[in-house]
Design a protein that fits this description.
The structure is a homotrimer.
Chain A (H helix, E strand, L loop, with lengths): L1 H20 L4 E2 L4 E5 L7 E5 L8 E9 L8 E7 L4 E7 L5 E4 L4 E4 L9 E8 L4 E6 L2 E2 L3 E2 L11 E4 L18 E9 L5 H8 L10 E2 L4 E5 L3 E4 L2
Antiparallel strand pairs in A: 1-16, 2-14, 2-17, 3-13, 3-16, 4-9, 4-14, 5-6, 5-13, 6-7, 7-8, 9-10, 10-11, 10-12, 14-15
């Protein structure tokens, strides 16, 4: 236990160092794809939001592809504050996709995430707690999840790794391998037609939390930025 | 046994009370979706038909989505008179969809009902007993079922629960979880082109038994009425 | 053994009687579907060709739907002369579709035949022995089968049953249950564009061996002729 804690502490120090080292953010990924080529416990990309992420509603969209086997847990999006996993999206070992707001999550049966690009959006609002995934523009069945909740500001968004167990404790077996592109996030729920427009690559108002074309990001470890072709 | 019967009786009394309590029907669900967020034995919606349901033919259409696992029995539509399950539609444990008219049913191999919306119609007429499901506008193979039969009037339509074993004996493990919208029912068999028009959201004559836009309904328990988006 | 042969002989006599009894053919099935509602060993439809079926090439097209389970053998088309199964099409127990010309067959991996209508064509010509199935207008890979062979005339085409083991020995477990419509057969290989036109319901020259709109047929047992809707 002491050793594990010591290891976690070391991890935390390393991650903090890394986050400092990569603090020179780069800006803008229009027409680019992030490629995570290997399973590692050290490759990730931090994303800097355009506003404090105190959210009572949101739409998160990204395009994702992976060669990982269907029964491998995968972190798809991790937003963590000092104490909590504020907002995580996972592909679970049983194939379901989960969405968690600082605590137990809610699980959705979606089509498999494959080597072909899936466009994946997640909408949630605090009023009635209506949560849904949108796969290639089609909405899942609503689930009611944490009405009244507010996502807390002041954390860090990571792609590629989950740092939630202990700050900085990254696990290769949960890491993302594959491609991510066109991530956008809005502080409100987009309409069906807006989500479908985004899916088909039509022009929609860019995200006011994250906008891929002008996103501030910092890659670390083995991550490639390549042309989307 | 006595205890179970006592429980059923209690359930019957409770259901009757509930049905009385919810007798102040609401009207019209145009652009709305019914969301049954959790597995319960107390959440349902009663629907009041526009005419006595003495039917020698019908078309029943609805759009449905669910997160329930593929091997879970699900009640999709239940019309019950005092003594009989007059007209039920089930998703069975083996994935087939069944249609019963007061007795043993007939089973169809349809594509799975998933988290994405399926448009599902059922047509039947007494003359030759031709029964078919229509999934997203495509007709299943006909099956011959109860030629000569007449659906009896005077019952209650329930969404979300099956009350058929004993009046009021609702079982959580058969309950519906997910979304239902755009339910319409006609007292005749619609043509292929009319069913396809309904599927694609084009204008068709509204149901004369049930018409979603002007439907009289009474939700009970944990059921949400949300905008369809 | 003797009893079985006796049974077969009796069956042969019965079938011959039936074929005589149903010799008053009906004509024309435009806009109609043949529905075989139950598994039987006595329901079938005989088809009378427009020409002697001495064929050195052919295209056979039909639309078919079934509720039968995926691992059930199904006879789809049976043309038998006195001594041989001249031309049979089967859905095999392993899901493959087979084509036999008086002897061992050739097997194709096609999409499953389901409760929704599949349009299925089969082309073959004796010159190179090129055989292919066409599913909803898409051609399978060619297989080379019996170059030099000629289909012999003078037999009977049956839908719904296979009478090949012994003349008149019908087996319920091989019978067809479901729907057949729009069967056409030509004495030559149709072009891709003609097959696709047929699939989409466009006008193509009707079959000169069988033409659904003017087909001579004789239903026997439990077979329904219903409007195609």
């Amino acid at each position: 236990m002491v050793l594990v804690r010591g290891h976690s502490l070391l991890g935390a120090i390393l991650l903090c160092s890394v986050l400092l080292l990569v603090s020179s953010n780069e800006v803008g990924l229009a027409g680019k794809v992030l490629v995570f080529p290997y399973e590692t416990d050290f490759s990730f990309v931090t994303l800097k939001p355009r506003m404090a992420m105190e959210l009572r509603a949101f739409t998160l969209c990204l395009r994702v592809a992976t060669e990982l086997p269907a029964d491998r847990q995968i972190i798809l999006f991790a937003y963590r504050t000092a104490d909590y996993d504020e907002l995580n999206v996972w592909r679970e070992r049983d194939g379901r996709v989960s969405f968690t707001l600082s605590g137990d999550g809610v699980f959705f049966h979606l089509p498999p995430i494959t080597t072909f690009r899936t466009s994946l959006c997640l909408t949630w609002e605090t009023n009635r707690g209506l949560a849904a995934f949108w796969v290639d523009g089609k909405r899942s069945s609503y689930q009611v999840y944490k009405p009244g909740h507010t996502v807390q500001p002041g954390g860090t968004v990571l792609l590629g790794q989950d740092a939630d167990k202990h700050l900085g404790d990254l696990e290769a077996t949960q890491s993302f391998v594959g491609e991510v592109t066109d991530l956008n996030m809005w502080d409100h729920v987009l309409s069906r037609s807006a989500i479908q427009a985004w899916h088909y690559g039509h022009r929609v108002p860019e995200g006011n939390v994250f906008a891929w074309a002008s996103i501030e990001y910092a890659p670390s470890g083995n991550v490639l930025v390549v042309d989307d072709d």
